TrEMBL record:
<dbReference type="GO" id="GO:0005634">
    <property type="term" value="C:nucleus"/>
</dbReference>
<protein>
    <recommendedName>
        <fullName>Importin N-terminal domain-containing protein</fullName>
    </recommendedName>
</protein>
<dbReference type="InterPro" id="IPR011989">
    <property type="entry name" value="ARM-like"/>
</dbReference>
<dbReference type="GO" id="GO:0005737">
    <property type="term" value="C:cytoplasm"/>
</dbReference>
<dbReference type="GO" id="GO:0042565">
    <property type="term" value="C:RNA nuclear export complex"/>
</dbReference>
<dbReference type="GO" id="GO:0003723">
    <property type="term" value="F:RNA binding"/>
</dbReference>
<dbReference type="GO" id="GO:0006405">
    <property type="term" value="P:RNA export from nucleus"/>
</dbReference>
<dbReference type="GO" id="GO:0006611">
    <property type="term" value="P:protein export from nucleus"/>
</dbReference>
<dbReference type="InterPro" id="IPR045065">
    <property type="entry name" value="XPO1/5"/>
</dbReference>
<dbReference type="InterPro" id="IPR016024">
    <property type="entry name" value="ARM-type_fold"/>
</dbReference>
<dbReference type="GO" id="GO:0005049">
    <property type="term" value="F:nuclear export signal receptor activity"/>
</dbReference>
Length: 156
């Protein structure tokens, strides 16, 4: 299983800077088409083959100050993982993603006037996508269970 072997790529500051450079390059009008293609292929490879790493990268990109493009890409990574890779994650990996998402939401709620509205909206979208997947996995999930799950996550 080559995908599992590739999953062991560690999160480093060098890797994170390369991701930032690739994101900025791929959306820079002054970048050549070849540079954009190389950057997009690099980002796509990470997204497809290093799910857990992309989860970390996504949350770190959202934390970058005054960088809306990085915020959008970070949210894109997290939303992509929840929508398309959720079922491939182990339960403890899902728990970590869920905890990180709720922690970020809690921080946004505490800094209501500090975070742009698009981040809160995107985090709400991610939460809904995650809850939809949790409900389909457990067919008998009730609204009370969803409320309890959300309350537990925001209290931590």
């Amino acid at each position: 299983q080559p995908q599992q072997m590739q999953e062991n790529l560690p999160f480093t500051s060098d890797l994170f800077q390369r991701v930032i450079s690739a994101v900025l390059c791929s959306f820079n009008q002054l970048s050549s088409n070849i540079d954009k293609q190389v950057a997009l292929e690099y980002l796509e490879n990470l997204k497809e083959n290093h799910v857990l790493l992309c989860c970390t990268i996504g949350f770190e990109l959202i934390k970058q100050q005054q960088q809306p493009l990085l915020h959008h890409y970070g949210i894109h990574l997290i939303e992509n993982i929840i929508k398309y890779k959720w079922l491939t994650l182990k339960q403890d990996e899902r728990n970590i993603l869920r905890e990180q998402l709720f922690l970020l939401i809690k921080n946004c709620l505490n800094d209501t006037f500090m975070e742009p509205i698009y981040i809160r909206t995107a985090l709400a979208r991610c939460t809904v996508e995650m809850i939809k997947r949790e409900c389909f996995e457990k067919a008998n999930t009730s609204l009370e269970e969803l409320v309890t799950l959300t309350q537990q996550a925001t209290m931590n």
